[in-house]
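User: My collaborator sent over this chain with a note saying "see what the structure looks like." That's all I know about it. Can you take a look?
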Amino acid sequence: MTGWVADNAVARNIRYVLHVGDVVDRHADMGEWTEAQTAMNLLDGEVPYAMAVGNHDVDGFGVDANNRTATNFNLRFPRAKFACMPSFGGSQSPSTYDNTYHLFSAGGTDWMVLTLKWAPVAAELTWAAQLVAANPGRQVIIVTHDYLLGDGTRSAVGQQVWNAVAGVYPNVAMVLSGHRSVARRSSVGRNGNTVHEIMADYQNPSQRNPNGYLRVLEFDPRASTLSVRTYNPETGTSLTDPANQFTLSGISFPAGSAPSEPLVRQALVRASATSAHTENGAARALDGDCRTMWHNEFQPATPLPQSVTLDLQRVHDVRGLVYAPRNDHTQNGTVTAYTVATSLDGTSFQPAATGTWPDDRTLKRATWPVTEARYVRLTASAGHAGFAAAAELHVVYQPESLVAQALMKATATSANAEYPASLAVDGSPDTIWHTEWVRPAPLPQSITLDLGSSQQVRGLVYQPRLWAADNLSPNGIITRFQVQVSSDGVTFTTVATGSWADDRTTKGVRWATLPARYVRLQATAGRGGYASAAELDVVAGVAG
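Assistant: Without extra context I'll predict from the sequence alone. Here is the result:
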C-alpha cells in the first residue's frame, strides 16, 4: 500500500500521507510493529507523513483504558527520526511523537496537519487549541483516531475535540479519523466556517484482504473541490458507493503567505562525497531519517574543506538547499561556513551561494536565483570541531512551467488500438500510449505532440507507465531516446538524445530554449522492445 504511494508520488502530486491510528492490531506484538515500520519506511525520502496514535497502539489496550502510554509506537516511530524534517513543526512533548504538527504549502495554500492521540486529554486539547490559534493563516487538518460514530454523529471523544478545537477556530478545515467504519458530516463552526469531518476505517476481513484500502484525497483549488476515492492498490479496485467515493464543493483555499519550498524527492537523488566515514556515507543524508548522517572521515580526520554532491538524476530549476545538522549527542560537523555550486554535467560547477550558518541544530537554508542544474554540491569550509556532517539534505526547486496538455494533439507511428497516442496527454497517469504488440512494430517508434501553436520550449517530462494491480507489466518503459522539434511538422531538428533508467520514476530532458510547435519523442530502445508513456509534458519558457 505504501509502496504504491511512493511509486505514484510524483505522477499524482501526492503531498502528504496521513495515518489515522491503529498502526497495529495488538500493541504488544513486536512482529506487527516490525511490519508496520517496514511499510511506513517505504515513504522515507518519498513523501512526508504524519501518524496519529490509535487505541490499539497504546500500552493499556484491552487491559487498562487509562494507560495511554504508547511505548512501542514511540520505539518504532521515534520523534528523533522526524525532528529535522522541513515540514515537521514539533510535538507536544519533546521526547515523544504522540501529538505532532506539520507545516507545508500546496495549491497556493498554507496547511497545518495536527495529530491528536486517541482520546486526547485536557492538556493535549489545550496544546492543540493554542497551536491552531497561533497559526490563523494556515488551513488546519486535524487527524485523530476516535471522532465519529457509524451514523455520522460525533462520539463522546469527538465532541470533546469539536468543543475544544475543531468547532472553535475559523481556520479548521477538516477532521480525519478512523476507529469504527465509514461516515462523514460537514458542520458549521463557531465562526461560520464549514468543517468537513470524515471517518474511514477498513478493518473487517473483506476490506483488509489482501492488503486493504486507502483514501485518496484530491484537492482542486481552481474548482474549490475535494474529491475522495477509496482504492485498493493490491487489487486495483475502488469502492464506488456514495459513502466511499464523493466530492465536496465549496472548499476554501485561501492564498498562503509562507514561502513555498518544493523539495526534490530524496529517494530520486544520489549522493557522493569527497570524504566519508565508513558508517556515515553520503547516502545517509538522503534517507529520510534524522538519526543518521553523512560525516567526513574522522579516523584519521580529513581536513576541511569537504563536499557532498547531490545528483538529482535529471535537470531541475533549482533555487535552494535545506541543510539539517546532525541531531544526536554532539554537534561535531555542524557546517558553519559553506559554498553551494550547481552543474548541468557533474564536471563544470558554478557557484550559487556562499555564507555562514549558526553553530546550532536548527535547519539552515541557502538560496540563489533559479538556475537549471542536475547536480548540487555543498562544500563545507568550516564546521564544528573541524568536521562536516549532515543529517539530511534537501534541494529546493521551482516547479516547471508546462505547456497545457489541453492545447495538444498527439499522434504516433505505432499504437495499439486500446492505447492510442492521445492517452499520453490526457492528464491521467492511469492511462497509457503503447506501441502495437498484437503485430509488434519494432523500435524505433515515435510519438509527436502538436502544441497547437508555436511555443518557447526547453524540455520534455516523461512519466513511464505506473505500477497497477491489473497490469503489472513494465513493457514499453523507454530507455534510449531522441527528442526532435519542428515549426511545421515536416522538418524536424534533433535537440536531445540520451538514455533513461529502466524504472517507473519520472524522467526528463532539457535543451536550450527555442520556438517550436511540434515536439517528437522517438524511442530507440525500450523494455520488451516496446515503447509506452503514461504522460508526456513539454517544459515551456525559460528558467526562473
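A starting point for your reply to your collaborator: The first strand starts at residue 17 and ends at 19.
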